[in-house]
Give the backbone structure.
Amino acid sequence: MSVKHSLERRVTGQIQSALPMGAAGAKLAPALDRLLGRVIADPKRSGSLFGLGEVFLVKAALYLTGVRLEPSAYEGVGTIHKEQVGVYQFDFNLGVDKQQPLPAELALPHGLHVPVNVNNAAPFSLSRKKGVLYLKVNGMRLFPVEYEPRPKFYSQKTSDGVEMWKLAQHRLGDELMVTYNTYCHTLKGGNQCRFCALNSNTPLDGLRNGCFIQTPRQIAEIAAAAYGEGVVKRLEITGGILPRRAEIDFILEAGKAIKSALGTTSIPNGHALLAAPNDLSQIDALKEAGWEYVFFNLEVWDAHFFRAYCPGKEALVGREHWLKALDYAAKVFGPGNVRCILIAGLEPLQSYLEGAEYLTAHNIFCDPAPWMPMPGSQLEGHSSPSAQWHIDLLVKTLDLWERSGLPLDTIAKDGWLAFNDLARMRLEVRQQNLPESDLRYKLSILGDLRV
Ligand code: SF4
């Protein structure tokens, strides 16, 4: 057996076994196998072999399997490179030893990004040599990558002396994320959403006023520092449902404080992510407080599945009122400024798409976030559907948005999730008139994982 052939077998065998995740890796593993086989056959061309479509496949595999950090991969994390902190609702690394700070996000070629999910058994690894960070698979270099730089405001303190990184975090390239607590009142009676891990986390810096990690003033100071530094173009505030819906007054106060600190009439791309308010007049108040758009995440479309997965949301707000609030908000904030995440993978494709159609027809943007079973959630240890199932759903959702006139460039530029990446690929296909044989066409138009 030739050296090349034996190396191919070693790599492909390990990719296949590294992507079990239930059925999640089916089809993705063979696609990566073929891609890596080509790299092995002609390593000098590896740079040109990794176009946007190919890097998207690697990103999907990294997301599913995680990555091993060799000792050199920790260099500069927490000083030059941004560390992973304050990820409360979707912390893949809950339970991972964090004595040394973990890197937060990995910047891949073609502007793609992926959170660093640590898995010591993964075939992917990261190591640094002469200052360059390399992504490897089974020891074979794929391409150079880099972590996100640590923003300067992480080294600053609020006027009352708290380190800013403990209170709000930089993520997704240009967003400041403020999580106001790690408690959700749905926990009472065991009614927390089955996929959510918020209640399994604890705040980095304790609580203030009984319920909150920050004060509105601290949030405003951090926002001024982060926007002022130029590393932030969006701001998200989120957290759990509090007794007597106390989170809504807090979000209103925070909005007003941020606006005043920035000297603007609204918070640039500022958005509040909260359970639909029971009192609809609070939706008007959210807009007046400076929030430019809102997320009221139903998470699951089908009424029966909603009750099963989100019993607390059903009990405290109710699906019927939730839909009313979404419609009301679409009138207050305007088309495209109301969003409702439907988690892809918790219900059948058909009911998901019914929900996506309903929301789109009501001028509400449904964010298709692929479900990854979170450590600390009640569904820990379960499996998401296959990569092929997810890509089918994303492509059908993109079809729906295109039919309804939603501009692809808006979806493409807004974040690093798989649907943003696919929208970007589809945009390239349209603009460059790419043929069906191009991987970007296969992935973003046909939803075909065959390389
Ligand atoms: S309402 Fe559900 S998703 Fe939101 S924080 Fe509470 S448990 Fe988590």
Remarks:
- The chain has two domains: 3-147, 156-385.
- The CA atoms of residues 26 and 405 lie 33 Å apart.
